[in-house]
Amino acid sequence: MRNFISYDESINILNNINSSKISTEKLFITNAIGRVIAKDIIANHNSPEFPTSAMDGYAIKFEDINNEEIKIIAKNPAGSVVEAEVTTNCCIKTFTGSLMPKGSDTLIPIENVELFEDKIKIIKAVPFGFAVRTVGENYKKNEVLIKKGTVIGFAEIGVLASLNISQVEVVINPTIAIASTGSEVLDLGETQTNDSQIRSSNHLTLEALFKSNGANTIQMGVVKDDMDSITNLLQTALLKADIIVTTGGVAVGDYDFVQDVIKDKLKAEVLFHGVNIKPGMHLLIALKDNKIIVALPGFAYSSTVCAILYVLPLIYKFRNSNEKLPIVKARINKDLTKFQAKTIFTACNVEYKNDEYKINFDGKKEGTSAILTNMLESPALLIQKENSENIKSGDLVDILLLNNIK
């Protein structure tokens, strides 16, 4: 077990956790939105398979482009195959999506011609091959169109449908059990009986975060600070979930029993307990029976930040996806002095303006790790690494875009 390691060390350990064998299922394509494709999707044909018209117009031989007039010999509606063939000084009226008639190589748009009974006069020339979709323009046979690990959205649905794929194999999402611990913590609807009691938001905040990022969740509510209750909670959760996430009980107080249960009762393999980060220093990750236990701090803001940093990557790992935390460069509007040798995550506001992200701290509250309201509106987290220098106004800095992780 490692205690109070660096943020980079902790992420390296997290990345090296072997998740359980990936399980898959088949779903009808529109029921698979938001799920992760388990295998590469490969084109089994060219699209289009034949030269196709991209506009309504007249299919001609390009060599006739400067002729005084060209005779119309047939019509070629979409969905049919015209028998007539384009020959010298002849054309066929052809519609969007129709196969280009034999003998033709260029399409003259309707608006580029004058019509005289059964003849056209080209009043505006076009280049060779104009408005003709070539074989394989959309995609070619044996081309990988959707890579495994891709999260399915509307574009993927369209491509799957174009390939006549009605069911797609997707990764089964991980299941996460969530609980808040603390004898001072009240669940929704519970009546406050003394001034020291606080309303828990942690378990519901994290449930929303995990659900919106592709996990199934088991809500286990609020558990009191005693060894038996916490032991029962974790033993039950281990039977039902791939990942167990708790908040509270991981610091060094007399009533911080979560760490004791994980270490002494469950005999779990503790990968680390304590990371040099702010917020969320007292963070514990352990393995038990091929399940992952993530014990987060109790403060709402700390637990949420740590869940983003540590649990979301685990969800991506279990989904076998190409998802990752959205970290980008941004321009800062104030000086910041680094006082602590920790990796610090600071709430800020972000906007995209003049081709770059810009951050400010307007309205952001300073204080304890309980200030969850700092994540409202257009939030991001400024990332200052453990060995980073002081920041000057106008510098480019690393930020984590919170609204981009749903």
Q: Can you offer a commentary on this structure?
A:
- With 406 residues, the chain is of the alpha/beta class.
- It contains 6 helices and 27 strands.
- It has helices at residues 7-15, 154-162, 202-212, 227-240, 257-265, 300-318, and strands at 2-5, 24-28, 41-42, 52-53, 57-60, 70-76, 90-94, 106-109, 113-116, 119-122, 132-133, 144-146, 167-171, 175-181, 185-186, 198-199, 216-223, 243-247, 269-275, 277-278, 284-288, 291-296, 327-332, 343-353, 356-360, 379-384, 396-401.
- The strands form 7 sheets. A 7-stranded mixed beta sheet has the order 1-19-21-22-18-14-17, sandwiched between helices. A 6-stranded mixed beta sheet has the order 8-5-7-6-10-9, with no helix packed on it. A 5-stranded mixed beta barrel has the order 23-25-24-26-27.
- Strand 21 and strand 22 (291-296) form a beta hairpin.
- The longest helix is centred in the C-terminal third of the chain and has 19 residues, at 300-318.
- The radius of gyration is 31 Å and the shape is elongated.
- It starts with a strand and ends in a 5-residue tail after the last strand.
- Please summarize the sheet with the most strands: 7 strands, mixed
The end-to-end span amounts to 33 Å
On the 0 to 100 scale, the average pLDDT is 90
Question: Largest beta sheet: what is the strand line-up?
Answer: 1-19-21-22-18-14-17
Would you count the extended β strands for me? 27
Low-pLDDT stretches are none
Cα gyration radius (Å): 31 Å
Q: Strand share of the residues?
A: 25-35%
Q: What global shape is seen?
A: elongated
Helices, by number, come to: 6
